[in-house]
Amino acid sequence: MISALRRELFLRKNEFVSSSPSTSSGQAQVENQIETIYFGGGTPSVLSSNEINLLIDEIYQLFDVAENPEITLEANPDDLSEDRIKQLAESKINRLSIGIQSFFDEDLKMMNRAHNANEAWNSLQEAKKYFDNISIDLIYGIPDMTLDRWQQNVQKALDLNIPHISSYALTVEPKTALAKLIKNGKIPTPDDGIAHEHFLMMIEMLEKAGFIHYELSNFGKPDYFSKNNSAYWLGKKYLGIGPSAHSFNGTNRSWNIANNSFYINAIQQDRLPNEVETLSIKDRYNEYVMTGLRTVWGVSFKKIKNDFGQDYLDYLLKNAEVFLTSEKLIDFLTHLGWFQKKNNNYSFTDQGLFFARRATSYGVTVSYLPMLSQMQHLLFGNVSEVKQDNGGQQEIHVDRAMNVWGSGGAHATYFKAVDELIIEIFNKPLNEQPKGILDMGCGNGALLEHLFETIENRTLRGEHLETDPLFLVGADYNQEALKITRANLIANDIWAKVIWGDIGNPVKLASDLKDEYNIELNDLLNMRTFLDHNRIWEQPSKTNNLQESLSAGAYATNGILLPNEWVEQSLVEHFQKWQPFISKFGLLVIELHTLDPNITSKNIGFTAATAYDATHGFSDQYILELAVFEECVKRSGLSVDENYTRKYPADERANISIHLIK
Fold it and tell me: What DSSP string runs through 441-452?
């Protein structure tokens, strides 16, 4: 691997013509000189001191390195024995980033960490003998962690005089030991309210101790900010070396293949094993604003004008006008303590930064404010006036851009679970795999891009794309979405077909695919995300003598109340339409569900069911309980593959599911 890393450095030594990198074997930052070198991602501490020095020497030989660059190594406490720390001190490493997480055994056991509290404390005491510049990670919001124990965690870091702390709220990943404990009721679900209290306590303690809260999750004493991470937030260029490493050259973002063997084989052939995404000026502007508001430096009007042009500054000022000119709104934000203005820079306060991390969680609900603000018409007037305009062609009840943004932020967890299923499917023998994937409701093509990257880099199929090409098809009812999908896929050099399609008419879709592209719909793995409940209402052909409804929901279309039995039967017949086209490889569905009111009432503050019922119910969408949804699948003659089934959260409050239906 070391030889491959050195070779990649050589192959990319001229990648930034007008400037030179700073690296990480993990990531490398680039300005006119290399300012930081960062060994991160995975377990870089397994490298010997000689190997570390060899890579650093290679960087010095190939690039222009600034005087006294920041050179960081990530490590876990159990990797840092006394001898190991001495070895690192003899290398060219001058900064350690240590994943402490907590100084208490009960927290570390709950998070399934390999080290214990003594190892955490001892590794830092030993590291302090040789290193002045040390950063640690601490996790807050851990179930059953009292404010007193969290205060002790922070105080222990202060007692050791650690100059930099990165701190994050606990997140529960699917299929982990922690997730299983929560599912089985052994420990409670992390509480955002408690996490908020931990966060504010930490800010108060660290600022009193002389730390500067310079980024949402990062605190540093003067002269100890992370130069490496600051470069990302400030939009600087960086060069990533090694498997899974990411790079940015100012306009393009690229990422290396994750598989070690594939990476080494490609490098040995002098071929860079990466994919490239070209960022439009709009993309780069959006990223700057989003990352800038996370930092103490905020957003600079001058930088926006210089880097993106006057048009983008005018755009920002126009959209921010209500915030900048409305005295009442500014007073309200100040009253909340979420926002502040410093000269011409605008940034969140500490409390505002905490809630900014969770902003996308509310994007979907907020997107329906145009509809919810017209409740008098929805309940007592003409509902068609609320829902559409321009001859029924344009939605006016929902801010679709906000809806897409909020959905993207909220659905990342579920896409990770889909990755697991996709990898398993496309690691089967080639003759047992689908010819490709059809994404119904493809939006902007982001899911297709992601799936292609996953299959290419992490599956058996990815090794054989030249002989067994992957047929990707994006289908959508919205013509504008098709245009955007086509442009994005072309820009990312991904071969795919884009076609108009109606989720309610699979027969026409199958016919069009065959006629236009000679592709059989049944030879593809069909996918869709949060779409089946949002299909155009179609009255079932059978409306009498139906099985008694199992749902406690309430449903309507255009102001007309629908019998629950009809809603269930409509879904049954909907799946029956798709049955001939999903018999070989199935239909992979991520779906939203309502909850029984009895469950919701027991979990006030712990479920979003009420918000979903309001936004989806009034906009004529048909979300059923998870058990009712699965029963409708069975009644349609199809079945659910339990090996590919996931639900979130993994208890009675489950309102998101993933199913492979055949």
Answer: S-TTSHHHHHHH
